[in-house]
Design a protein that fits this description.
The protein is of the alpha/beta class. It contains 13 helices and eight strands. Strands 3-2-1-8-7-6-5-4 form an eight-stranded parallel β-sheet. Helix 8 links the parallel strand 4 and strand 5. Helix 11 packs parallel to helix 12. The longest helix has 18 residues. The protein starts with a helix and ends in a 6-residue tail after the last helix.
Length: about 290
C-alpha cells in the first residue's frame, strides 16, 4: 500500500482531474491519460459511478451544470450519458500503467469502489459530494489504503465526522482537500487560508482541489503549504459537458505543473541565511573596510 507520508515526501502530488471530460468515450479517456502524462502530472483521475445507484431521476442540474453544459435535462440523464461501463476502467488503468502515471478514480457508490479496488487502485479519493456520506467513507476506509477527502461545502464539524469515520476503521492514512464547489469558483470565495485551519485542527496533510478558471489559485495554495493539487483539465474547452469550461487545456495543465514545481523549489526551509549564489556575490556586493 502507498503511504501518504512517503508519497508526499517526493513533492507536491499533482492530480490531473479528467473527471467526466471524456464525455462517455473510452477513446477520449485514453487521450486524457496521455495528455496528463505529457503535462507531467503524478496521477490522472476519473469518476466511476453507476448512475441509478447514486442519483435520483428527479434530481435537477446544479446551476453551474446548466450554465456550462447548456443542457435541459435532469442530472440523472446527464450523468447517464457520461457514465462509462465499469470494465472501461480496466482499459484506462492499463493505459496508465503503460504510460507510467498513477490511475485514480472517484467512486460514487460501493459497487464502483469495489471494482476500482479490484484494479489495485492505490488511493481512494472521496469527492465533496460524498463528504457527508459517512457509510461510503467508512466502507472506503476499510479498504486499507490512503483516503483523500475533499471538503467542498463542509464546515469543520462535517470534516471531523468524515475523518472520524476513516479513523474508526483503523485507517490513519488520510489527507484533506480544501475546495470550493463551484465551476468555475470565484476568487472571492476560495478562502485559501482555510487550508491552514484544516492542518492545525486535524494534523493531517492538506491539499487544494482547484475549480477556478486559471492556475493562480493552485500556485498560491502550494506557496501556502498545499501538499496535493487537483485540477480539472480537458482536451477541448468548447466540448459539451458540465466541466469543460471550468477546466484547463492540456497546454495550461503543463504550465500549471511547471509552475508548481518552481514554487516548490522557491518555498525553501524558512531558515534565513545567505544562499550559495549570494555567498558568491558577497565580495562584490557588500560593503567592507579596506586599509
Amino acid at each position: 500500500m502507498i503511504k501518504l507520508k512517503s508519497l508526499l515526501k517526493k513533492g507536491v502530488f499533482i492530480i490531473a482531474e479528467a473527471g467526466v471530460n471524456h464525455n462517455g468515450s473510452v477513446k477520449l479517456a485514453l487521450k486524457l491519460v496521455d495528455a496528463a502524462k505529457e503535462a507531467g502530472a503524478d496521477a490522472v483521475k476519473f469518476q466511476t459511478f453507476i448512475t441509478e445507484k447514486c442519483i435520483s431521476k428527479n434530481t435537477v442540474l446544479a446551476g453551474y451544470q446548466k450554465r456550462n453544459a447548456g443542457a435541459k435535462k435532469s442530472q440523472y440523464e446527464m450523468a447517464k450519458e457520461l457514465e462509462l461501463p465499469l470494465e472501461s476502467f480496466k482499459i484506462i488503468k492499463d493505459r496508465c500503467s503503460k504510460k507510467g502515471i498513477i490511475f485514480l478514480s472517484t467512486p460514487d457508490e460501493e459497487e464502483s469502489l469495489d471494482y476500482l479496488c479490484g484494479l489495485r487502485m492505490p488511493i481512494i479519493k472521496i469527492g465533496s459530494g460524498d463528504s457527508n456520506n459517512i457509510p461510503l467513507i467508512a466502507y472506503a476506509a476499510k479498504k486499507k489504503r490512503p483516503v483523500i477527502l475533499s471538503t467542498g461545502m463542509c464546515d469543520l464539524k462535517d470534516v471531523a465526522e468524515a475523518v472520524k469515520a476513516v479513523k474508526a476503521a483503523g485507517n490513519n492514512e488520510i489527507a484533506l482537500m480544501h475546495c470550493t464547489t463551484e465551476y468555475p469558483a470565484p476568487f472571492s470565495e476560495l478562502n485559501l487560508k482555510a487550508m491552514a485551519t484544516l492542518a492545525k485542527k486535524f494534523g493531517l496533510p492538506v491539499g487544494y482541489s482547484d475549480h477556478t478558471a486559471g492556475i493562480e489559485a493552485s500556485i498560491a495554495a502550494v506557496a501556502m503549504g498545499a501538499k496535493i493539487i487537483e485540477k480539472h483539465f480537458t482536451l477541448d474547452k468548447n466540448m459539451k459537458g458540465p466541466d469543460h469550461k471550468a477546466s484547463l487545456s492540456a497546454d495550461e495543465l503543463k504550465q500549471l505543473v511547471k509552475a508548481v514545481r518552481n514554487i516548490e523549489l522557491s518555498v525553501g526551509t524558512g531558515i534565513k541565511r545567505a544562499s550559495p549564489s549570494e555567498k558568491r556575490n558577497m565580495c562584490a556586493a557588500r560593503k567592507s573596510l579596506v586599509a
